[in-house]
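Private note to self, pasted from the team thread so I don't lose it. Backbone tokens:
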């Protein structure tokens, strides 16, 4: 009996750890219609915001295309690869965990199975800057469409700049 309780506890701990290290969840800020569809939702551009899960004090704002029509309303349409990103320092920066090069900080599915838009983070130590790259990928063939944003890590108000992160090898 104790092994079963331990197994459930270990499983719960693993699920909790996975959830805490998962890419950030986004909050929808707003949307605009870009094309009228007679049936189903209109085509849109959606603006979402998310906080970097490992870097306190940095928020990113992502705009992306969302396909409408009947297939879009049912969640069956494939959204285009068009996206833009702007990341900003919104408070004192604090590194909560070690950073990994090219680490995924956000992902959103843009088709029912094969396509997603994601944001990855890089650290540029020569410039003390966090660089965020958004791009679309497909299981078979990705898209070259991408956008970047950079956040210079510096003091906020009277708070001194944090120590530079070191990538885990």
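Design output:
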């Amino acid at each position: 009996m104790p092994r079963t309780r331990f197994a459930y506890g270990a499983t719960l701990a693993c699920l909790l750890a996975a959830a805490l290290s998962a890419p950030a969840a986004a909050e929808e800020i707003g949307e605009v219609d870009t094309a009228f569809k007679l049936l189903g939702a209109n085509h849109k551009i959606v603006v979402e915001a998310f906080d970097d899960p490992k870097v306190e004090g940095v928020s990113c704002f992502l705009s992306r295309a969302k396909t409408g029509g009947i297939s879009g309303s049912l969640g069956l349409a494939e959204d285009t690869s068009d996206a833009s990103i702007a990341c900003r320092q919104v408070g004192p920066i604090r590194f909560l965990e070690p950073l990994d090069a090219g680490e995924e900080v956000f992902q959103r599915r843009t088709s029912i199975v094969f396509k997603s838009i994601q944001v990855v983070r890089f650290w540029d130590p020569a410039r003390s800057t966090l660089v965020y790259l958004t791009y679309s990928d497909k299981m078979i063939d990705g898209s070259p469409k991408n956008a970047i944003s950079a956040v210079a890590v510096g003091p906020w108000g009277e708070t001194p700049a944090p120590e530079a992160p070191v990538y885990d090898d």
